[in-house]
Structure formats: structure tokens, C-alpha cells
Amino acid sequence: MPRQSMNFNIEIMSILDANGKLDDKLMPDISEHHIKSMYEAMVLARILDDRLLKLQREGRSGTYASSLGQEATQVGSAFALRDEDWMFPYFREAGAHIVRKFPLANYMLYWMGDERGMKIPENINNFTICIPVSTQILHAVGAAFAMKHKKKPNAVLVYLGDGATSKGDFHEGMNFAGVFNLPVVFMCQNNQYAISVPVERQTASRTLAQKAIAYGFPGIKVDGNDIFAVFAAAQEALQRARSGKGPTFIECFTYRMGDHTTSDDASRYRTAQELEEWKRKDPIERLRKYMESKGLWNADYESVIRQDFEERIEQAVKEAESKPQQAIEDMFSYTYAAMPQNLKEQLKEAKGD
Ligand SMILES: Cc1ncc(C[n+]2csc(CCOP(=O)(O)OP(=O)(O)O)c2C)c(N)n1
């Protein structure tokens, strides 16, 4: 057989540029009310993040992974979800939890080291925060498989980082999703670093989106600081999933403006100049400029929402910190339906019986 070549294209999408100027042709149908809600969710995410960083510094909370700079990726994608869809986070999605109306006090409680914070309210189709890199992908693909099996018309959206694409779980999940044509959207927050490892050392691929091609489904690269592009890509991918057309991989190209977590110091492996360049692409500023040009934003509006959000965050801190201490049994009670003998023995030991 003669040698032939096949060409593949990766679509790259942006709608709103860094100056808040819009490409009208690509703009999805979003009401003014929804644009404001998107902006408010991003601002609330930033305030929540800042508060959790400060609480950690005061010794009132544990290690925290900030979303600073990635709010558009998170809020834009979560906005495209319906309540009946399922969302599988990893650990850097404050914005998505806000859009899904996850109680702020529970979110804080979790980061204060109390697992009760991740007890998901019955009416919210979220899975729990997942600290082991990439394992959430297998859970999400499994859920999508179950959804397809039960003929549910809903979709699953799973978040992952650029570093997660190097794990076996990622490739297993992508392969399974492709083979079984599952209703799942892989939402990759390419913030360009996995702790100190830059994405160029993570993969030799020119894009992460192209990895989807090998698994037989579409991959798209999106400007992750452009909330309209993220929303449009997620909406289209979720619709594909819900209508039985299978998975999509979305690479949101963004930047983690903060440290990896509160135990990291990013200035040891990134230049101040690089950070400055990305600050100019701040996703919140970008949407704000657009809204101002449309008469949807002014300084009064900003101070009203900020005051409201700061009060809500303070209330959540109070609520989380006043939670009575957890019973020691809770450490052992939730893994199995019936506690096996070895855990019973450990519980006895922990209680000092
Ligand atoms: C299985 C596993 N290995 C190592 C770690 C330690 N670790 C925590 S976050 C992280 C990097 C993750 O990078 P990425 O997937 O790009 O997501 P980001 O943190 O940048 O959002 C690593 C190696 C872990 N949590 N789980």
C-alpha cells in the first residue's frame, strides 16, 4: 500500500479579546442577565479564593489551591451545565462550585480539613473534590457509561489540569469514552504548569486538544480567559454529549496567576515578566470592559456586588468555623456500607477503648 498522510485540524476559538472587544459572529446567545451572573460568579470566586488564602495564612484553614486567573474557564464551562448534568471537579474549581450553587460554608469547611464539607447536597449533581491527580476522570467516565446504559439524556463534565494528561487514568478514560461513545466532556484547564513543571515538559504535542484525535473524538482549543468562548465550546460539547454524539475534549488555554497551592512559591520557577503579561489578560477585567461598553457595568454596581459577596463570605466563614467537632467514627464510617473488621479494630484503637 502506498504511504499516505492524513491531516487533522485543531480548531482554536476566541470571541472576546483582551480589550473586551467582541467577535459578533461567534458570540453565543447569552442574555444580559446571564452575562451579569457570569461576571458576578467570577468576582465571587476571586473573593472566596482570597479569603481562603488568608485563612490559611492565619492558620485557620489548610492547604488551598487558588483559581486566580482561571475564573473564566471554570465559570464559563459550569454555566453551560444543566442541573441534571453531572460535574466532576478536581481541586481547582472555586468558580464552578459557585455556579453549581455549592454552599460556600461547606466549600470552606472542606478546605479547613473537615470532610463533612464535601457532603454534597441531594439536589446538586456534583461529585466530590478529587485531590489525586486524574482519578476523577475514571469516575466521570464511569458515570457517563452508567448514564448511557440507563438512557439518561444528560451529560458529564469532568475538569482536569494539563498535568493530568500525563497520567494513565487520563488515557484510559479518554479511550473508554471514545470506544463507547460516552456523553462526557473533558474540560482541561491548561494553566501551563503542573506545580513547577511547564506544559512543554509535560507533553511534546503542540496542543493538548489534539490528544482527542487519537481517541476518535473532537478536541478544541479555546482561549480560557475568554468566558464567552469557553461557554460556547462547553455548550456545544455538552449538547453533543446529550444527543448521543459522544465525547469532546476542550483545552482551555489559561494561566494560574497564583502559586500552585499555599505550599508553593511560583516565583522560583516563573518570571515576574510572564506573570505581568498574563495579568493583562485577566478574565474578569476583560469581561468588565465589555460590560462597561454595553452599559452593564459601573462603579456603583461593582461596590454593591462586592459588599454583598464579602458579607456572604464572612457569613460562610462563621458558619464553617462554628461547626461542632466531628465524631471520630466519621473517619471510618463512609468507605463501606458495613464496616469491615480491620476498620472496626482501628476505630476501637482511635477511641482508646
Ligand atoms: C496521583 C497524584 N500524584 C501527585 C500528586 C501531587 N500533585 C498535586 S497537584 C499536582 C500537579 C497537577 O497539575 P495539573 O494537572 O496541571 O493541575 P493544576 O494543579 O495545575 O491545576 C501534583 C503532581 C497528586 N495530588 N496526586
Counting copies of identical and different chains, the oligomeric state is single chain
CATH level 4 superfamily of the largest domain: Thiamin diphosphate (ThDP)-binding fold, Pyr/PP domains
CATH architecture group name of the largest domain: 3-Layer(aba) Sandwich
Question: Termini separation (Å)?
Answer: 75 Å
Strands, count: 8
Which fold name corresponds to the CATH topology of the largest domain? Rossmann fold
Q: What order do the SSEs take from the amino end to the carboxyl end, as H and E?
A: EHHEHHHEHEEEHHEHEHHHHH
The helix fraction, in percent, is 40-55%
Helices, by number, come to 14
Residue fraction in strands: 5-15%
Poorly predicted runs of 5 or more residues: none
The ligands found in this model are:
thiamine diphosphate
CATH class of the largest domain: Alpha Beta
Largest sheet: 6 strands, parallel
Write structural notes for this entry.
The protein has 353 residues and is an alpha/beta fold. It contains 14 helices and eight strands. The strands form two sheets. The protein has a six-stranded parallel β-sheet, with helices on both faces. The chain has a two-stranded antiparallel ribbon with strand order 5-6. Strand 3 (156-161), helix 6 (168-179) and strand 4 (184-190) form a beta-alpha-beta unit. The protein is globular and about 75 Å long. It binds thiamine diphosphate. The site of thiamine diphosphate has 15 residues, from strand 5.
